[in-house]
Amino acid sequence: MVNPKQVAERAAVTSFLNCYLRETGEGQWHVRKGSEGEMNVLRLPLSATQLALVATAHYKSPTGRHLFQLPICLQSGSGEPAPIGIATAVSLLADELGSKHEGSETKELLLRALQSCNLLEAFLSMRSGDIPELYSPSLTFLKSEQSLLFGHVFHPTPKSRQGFPEWRQHLYSPETKGSFQLHYFAAHHSLVEEDSVWRAGATEIIKRELLESLAPGEALSSAAAEAIHDPSYKWIPVHPVQGEELLHDGHVQSWMRQGKLIYIGAIGRMYYPTSSIRTVCEPDSDYMYKLSLRAKITNSMRVNKRHELFGALEAARLAGKLEPWLRDHCPGFHIVKDGAYVTLGHSDTEESGFELIIRENPFAGPQGEKVLLAAAFTQEAISSSGSQPLLVNILREAAGREGCSVAQAGLAWFRAYLAISLRPMMMMYAKYGIALEAHLQNSVVKLGANGYPEHFYYRDSQGYYYARSRVGYLEELVPGIGSGPNVYDDELAEERFGYYLIVNHMLGLIQSFGVFGLLDERVLLMELRDELESLAAVPGAHSRLARDWLTRRTLRFKANLLTRLYDVDELETELEQAVYAEMDNPLCAALPDREAIRKARLVTAIWRRERTAQQSSHA
Q1: Would residue 262 count as lying in a domain?
Q2: What would the pLDDT profile of 289-338 be if each residue is shown by its tens digit?
Q3: Mean pLDDT over residues 563-574, rounded?
Q4: 85 & 192 share domain
Q5: Which InterPro entries does this one have (predicted)?
Q6: Are 283 and 364 in contact (CB under 8 A)?
Q7: Same domain, 542 and 414
Q8: Residue 565 belongs to a domain
Q9: Which pLDDT value is given to residue 206?
Q10: Mean pLDDT of the chain
Q11: Are the C-beta atoms of 66 and 18 separated by less than 8 Å?
Q12: Do residues 126 and 196 both lie within one domain?
């Protein structure tokens, strides 16, 4: 039987502690022997109070994703540790950070951490009956997008949301399988600014999508009926929460008095929030809408900035130019385009609140089968009894088909994943100087019939970093791109690339194999090393970068806890810069039992050769 409160509290304190340990480097580990065998125990001194937190981990990760169990205990001096609640534990940790960081917002951090925990408990309660659906290897794109109940495993407030009415959270949250109608405005063409890389413009796509969704004979209000047939008016959808706010905006009210803007209200088909919350889709539509939403989700307000509209089309044009090269060199790697935008008003600097980006949907209808959000591979099961995480179920099915062990299937699966993700992105950086913000939530994977990764999709028009030294190559593809906002000094571009691709993505995936008991993390760290070493051996810009990742003692990473502690909205700061910190680089650290791992790889080599031969004979 699932206990949502207990599961949510354990997940919340685990995420908070893991962030704290990684970002501060503090904490002392020791092994305690008991009736259940040896257990790893963390003791975390709190200098601000002369106390110490004591937490037992039933999984200790070599790369930092430990699994802690409840209760957390508080120790005074050499006394016996006493159990405390998670609110007390998080409050003590927040105060400890606050005592060391002047100008921090400890109350805000505590409030959001507890809100996140409460929302997670609600989500778990609502989805506890959906376990087979949540962890099925046959998930569709939409079901996968709505399966991230736990969220970012290295974030102190992964489910924090500000700006949604509490009583309507279930309508707007992907975790609760939310769905809703969009709210529409009809705007006189003199107010409309739009552009598109496709033949159809943004407002043409919007109107066509809306008309196709209306039921035959569906009654429209007189204002809607009049505006929908008047070619001088363009229709723009907004999120319901955004629509309510816009109606109180001074510019909007002025436009409405002048007759330049007509509020239509909720109309048309139901749309479903994806994992980002503000991007919505309809499973059978060829398009998704990235809506502007004045709500704070995790660290940032999710409003579309005007420069992001232009950047989206720039990225789409670039992606179009890259397609021939990708087909020839990386046929399993794809870039999802944000190819059109629309907004109201003509200010070059201010947003009106109507900013909308239209994204292509390559997963419409049957194309969305077995299409999984990469972050879903990292999610644990709601209950440890009677259910298994998605990644475990995928590998068990693959092992059954292959007639091999789950560990052998896992190793082959990870190698296939590297081939369609890390290698293409490194090759792209080598040739064009494009570093992608490819974190787990920006990445979508289509599994083949055998359950192995077959196609990788990158989606996020905001996540492009162009290395300044390579801009000349991009100018040949998209003239003017070198003067845009996405050009960064090589050092900064590579720092971001290293965090998103290596720390967030590859280490995040490796940790999941270890947490779920599929493979020792150190085995996959060696596989990642092998892949980077093979890339380092090939001349090109990526070879230097691969060697750097293999040899540097530390890696830079986004410190989500410190970013939240200072209440930094990274989308509002210069260069969209969050707080970054350094962690030990597990790729260059000495790997214990290396000889044992080498022997294990020799044993599985025979099976790998047999499998390759078998695949060739079927080709």
Answers
A1: yes
A2: 999 998 888 877 889 999 999 999 999 999 999 999 999 999 999 999 99
A3: 71
A4: no
A5: Aerobactin_biosyn_IucA/IucC_N, IucA/IucC-like_C, LucA/IucC-like
A6: yes
A7: yes
A8: no
A9: 97
A10: 91
A11: yes
A12: no
